[in-house]
Write a structure and sequence with these properties.
76% helix, two-stranded antiparallel ribbon, mainly alpha
C-alpha cells in the first residue's frame, strides 16, 4: 500500500515532465528490491568484464605451456585487452549518449561473448592477440556504463553504497579466475585448459546478455535527450515495481537545467583535470598490478603451479577491499578514502616488488 501511494503521489505531483522533475522523482524513490535487482544485473556484466581482465594475467603464464613466449609476447598478451578497452571506451562510450545506455549494454555483452568464444579456438598467438584486442574493444564501454547507469537509477543519498555493492560482486571474478586458472593448468577433454576458461567466459557473457535484455532505459538519459514523455512512462513503471525497503528521502528541490560544458571554468576546471589524471593513473596501479603479479612471481623463482596458486589466493583481496568500501563510502569522506587507499596501494605494491619471503609476498599482494 505504501508503495502504490508513493507511486501515485510521485506521478501526479510533479506537473510538467522536465529533466529536473524526473531526477527529483528518481532521487526520492525509496530503495527497494527493484534497485537491488538492478545492482545485481549490472554487477553481472562487470563480473565478466573483470573476469576477462583477470584472465589476461594468468594467460601470460598458462599459454607458455603451449606456445613459446618471449617477454614481449607476455606483455602483449596482457596489454592487448587493455588497448582494446581504451579504444572501445573512446569509440563506444559516447554512443551511449546518442543511442541509450540499454542498447550499448546489450551490444557490449553480445560482442564480448562471441569474441571470447572465437578466441578460445585461436590457432596461434597472432590470432589470439588480434581477437583479444577486438574483445577489449567490445568491452570498452562496459565499466563506464556501469557507473553511469547505476548513478542515473539510484537515489543520490544511497548511490555510493550500492555502486560499491555492484563492484564487490563484480570483483569476485578476480579470485574465481585465479581458482579456475589453477584447475586449467593442463589439458581437459583434449582441449588446453585456458581454452575452457574462454568458453566459460563466453557462456557467462551470453547468459548475462539474455537476462539483461529487459533492463529499462535510464529515465535521466531519456529526459536529458528531450524524450520526457518516455522518461515519465519508464519511471512510472519503475515506481509501481518498487517495494519500499527504506523510507523515502525528502523530495529535493528542483534544480535548474544543467548547461553542457566539456571543460568547466575556474575551480571546476582544475577539479575536472584532477579527476582525469586520477582516472588515467589509477588503472595503472589497479589493473597493471593485478596483470603482472603472476609473471613477477615467476621471476622471483616460484614455479608455475605456485605462481598461479599464490596469485589466486591473494586475489581475494579485491572483493574484500570493495566490501570494506561498502560500509565506509557513506561514513567517511570519499576524498579521504581515495587518498588513503591510493597511498596504501603504493606502499604495499612497492613492498610486494621488493619482497622475497612468500609470507610477505602473499600479505602485500592481498592488501594491494
Amino acid at each position: 500500500m505504501a508503495s502504490s501511494n508513493y507511486a501515485r503521489a510521485a506521478v501526479t505531483s510533479n506537473g510538467p515532465h522536465t529533466p529536473s522533475s524526473i531526477a527529483a522523482r528518481l532521487d526520492r524513490l525509496p530503495l527497494s528490491s527493484w534497485h537491488r535487482r538492478m545492482v545485481l544485473l549490472i554487477g553481472l556484466g562487470s563480473f565478466f568484464n573483470l573476469f576477462e581482465i583477470a584472465l589476461g594475467s594468468f594467460f601470460g603464464v598458462l599459454l607458455a605451456a603451449q606456445w613459446p613466449l618471449s617477454i614481449l609476447d607476455r606483455s602483449m598478451i596482457i596489454g592487448t585487452l587493455f588497448l582494446g578497452e581504451m579504444i572501445g571506451s573512446l569509440l563506444l562510450a559516447p554512443l551511449a549518449d546518442r543511442f541509450g545506455r540499454r542498447l550499448l549494454f546489450q551490444v557490449n555483452l553480445l560482442t564480448y561473448a562471441v569474441l571470447s568464444l572465437a578466441t578460445a579456438f585461436a590457432p596461434n598467438l597472432g590470432v589470439f592477440l588480434v581477437l583479444r584486442l577486438l574483445t577489449g574493444i567490445g568491452l570498452g564501454a562496459e565499466l563506464t556504463l556501469v557507473d553511469t547507469y547505476l548513478s542515473e537509477l539510484l537515489p543520490k543519498a544511497r548511490r555510493g553504497r550500492y555502486v560499491a555493492w555492484s563492484y564487490t560482486f563484480g570483483l569476485l571474478a578476480v579470485p574465481l579466475a585465479g581458482g579456475l586458472a589453477i584447475a586449467a593448468n593442463g589439458t581437459i577433454a583434449g582441449l588446453a585448459g585456458w581454452r575452457w576458461l574462454l568458453i566459460f567466459a563466453a557462456c557467462g557473457g551470453l547468459t548475462v546478455w539474455l537476462v539483461r535484455r529487459h533492463l529499462p532505459e535510464s529515465p535521466r538519459w531519456l529526459a536529458a535527450t528531450g524524450n520526457t514523455t518516455e522518461a515519465d512512462r519508464v519511471l512510472t513503471a519503475i515506481e509501481h515495481q518498487a517495494q519500499p525497503v527504506d523510507p523515502p528521502d525528502p523530495m529535493p528541490p528542483a534544480l535548474p537545467p544543467a548547461v553542457a560544458d566539456p571543460l568547466p571554468s575556474g575551480r571546476y576546471r582544475r577539479r575536472t583535470v584532477l579527476m582525469w589524471v586520477m582516472q588515467i593513473a589509477s588503472p595503472i596501479g589497479f589493473y597493471g598490478f593485478a596483470s603482472i603479479a603472476p609473471i613477477v612471481l615467476l621471476a622471483k623463482g616460484f614455479d608455475l603451479a605456485h605462481s598461479l596458486t599464490y596469485s589466486a589466493l591473494t586475489a581475494l583481496g579485491y572483493p574484500l577491499g570493495s566490501l570494506v568500501s561498502v560500509y565506509l563510502t557513506e561514513r567517511v569522506e570519499r576524498r579521504s578514502l581515495l587518498i588513503a587507499s591510493t597511498l596504501a596501494s603504493g606502499v604495499f605494491g612497492l613492498a610486494f616488488g621488493l619482497a622475497s619471503s612468500i609470507s610477505v609476498v602473499a600479505t602485500t599482494r592481498t592488501t594491494v
